[in-house]
């Protein structure tokens, strides 16, 4: 699947300013940690995120533990961040908002 | 694990009257169907329900399809419904309310 | 997504003869029940199947219970079975063979 | 739930010598990375591990990505490793062996 091009540094900065909770992991990735009441809620979040990722054929790294999940988005082929990473980070926020409600 | 005793018919009737959406599957089981926007949401619901079931060591039957999941609770050892089934049906409602929000 | 055409009755019969365990659910669907040692194994099978289904944008109905999962494949748009159902039924067998090993 | 006591350093060393692939994460934790053919297989592994963890009421940290999952076991209450961590690490190996077959 063809990928969108790597974003300029300033474009990512603008997105980060508008999406609190997300931070850079080096220059080429972004991450956010979400809190949940227990392991099961964090696991269900991970499965729902996995299904959305599968649909877009673009997958995150997710670290799931008791009451939390951390998500990293990057595009290896682009050696950095693309518009697809940012779109899926926004989808991640929406899933987490429900799962942690 | 010891199980609570089988509930009287009238006790289940009273619970059903207070919990719309749940119906009898014969005398010894109850079921409810939930709607979701897509398969991934229904699957995440099933995983979260499975984790709650595992914690209580009492498991439902779940039928998951595109945009829906149907849950059946019964207690085989009691050949009918117990207070544990009703407690887990209420937990099911809580999980579904978030997952379908 | 465009779907393959509905298969002729004889084509499905030939496939069923070669794939023991699968049976018709009426004229337009096929199903198979798989056994697992516990609920967790059946749930993991369901998640893996869900991810494969998501990749192909074609989803089964799965009934998961203690130590078992039943899978139904059909194509609503074709009002019957297509080659995609049969391909995904074969993928289902492969997932179940590992998950129940 | 009461927890088994923290293991002596030598007891963990003996276990590590017998279980290749597991390494220390500092003094108080152990980790192992498993490889899978894709994201869905790694996710199904994570769900099955989550169900086993839920049954024992002791949960790992799992980092799942494309084609891999890394598992960390530790016991916060004991500020180190206990026999429960080692038992669940062995269960992790068994799940991964099937899921990556």
Question: In words, what does this structure look like?
Answer:
- The structure is a homotetramer of 101-residue chains.
- By secondary structure, chain A is an alpha+beta fold.
- Chain A has a single domain (23-99), classed as Transcriptional coactivator/pterin dehydratase (Gyrase A, domain 2, 2-Layer Sandwich).
- Chain A is built from 3 helices and 4 strands, in the order H-E-E-H-E-E-H.
- In chain A, strands 1-2-4-3 form a 4-stranded antiparallel β-sheet, with helices on one face.
- In chain A, a hairpin with a 2-residue loop joins strand 3 and strand 4 (68-73).
- In chain A, helix 2 (39-56) runs antiparallel to helix 3.
- The N and C termini of chain A lie far apart (35 Å).
- Chains in contact: A-B, A-C, A-D, B-C, B-D, C-D.
- The A-D interface holds A 39-40, 43, 46-47, 50, 53-54, 59-66 and D 39-40, 43, 46-47, 50, 53-54, 59-66.
- Strand 3 (61-65) of chain B pairs antiparallel with strand 3 (61-65) of chain C, so a sheet runs across the interface.
CATH topology of chain A: Gyrase A, domain 2
Please give the most extensive interface between any two protein chains, plus how many residues each contributes.
A-D, 16 and 16 residues
Radius of gyration computed on alpha carbons of chain A: 13 Å
Biggest sheet architecture of chain A: 4 strands, antiparallel
Number of domains of chain A: 1
Which CATH class of chain A is shown?
Answer: Alpha Beta
Mean pLDDT of chain A, to the nearest integer, reads 95
Uncertain spans of chain A? none
Shape of chain A: globular
Percentage beta strand of chain A: 15-25%
- The name of the CATH architecture of chain A is 2-Layer Sandwich
Order of helices and strands of chain A: HEEHEEH
The CATH homologous superfamily of chain A corresponds to Transcriptional coactivator/pterin dehydratase
Oligomer: homotetramer
CA-CA gap between termini of chain A: 35 Å
What is the SS-derived class of chain A? alpha+beta
Q: Helical segment tally of chain A?
A: 3
Order of neighbouring strands in the sheet with most strands of chain A: 1-2-4-3
């Amino acid at each position: 699947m063809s990928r969108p091009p790597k974003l300029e540094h300033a474009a990512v900065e603008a997105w980060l300013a508008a999406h609190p909770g997300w931070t850079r992991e080096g220059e080429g990735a972004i991450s956010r940690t979400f809190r949940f009441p227990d392991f099961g809620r964090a696991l269900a979040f991970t499965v729902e995120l996995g299904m959305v990722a599968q649909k877009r054929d673009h997958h995150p790294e997710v670290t799931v533990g008791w009451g939390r999940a951390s998500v990293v988005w990057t595009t290896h082929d682009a050696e950095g961040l693309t518009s697809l990473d940012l779109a899926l980070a926004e989808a991640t926020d929406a899933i987490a908002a429900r799962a942690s409600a």
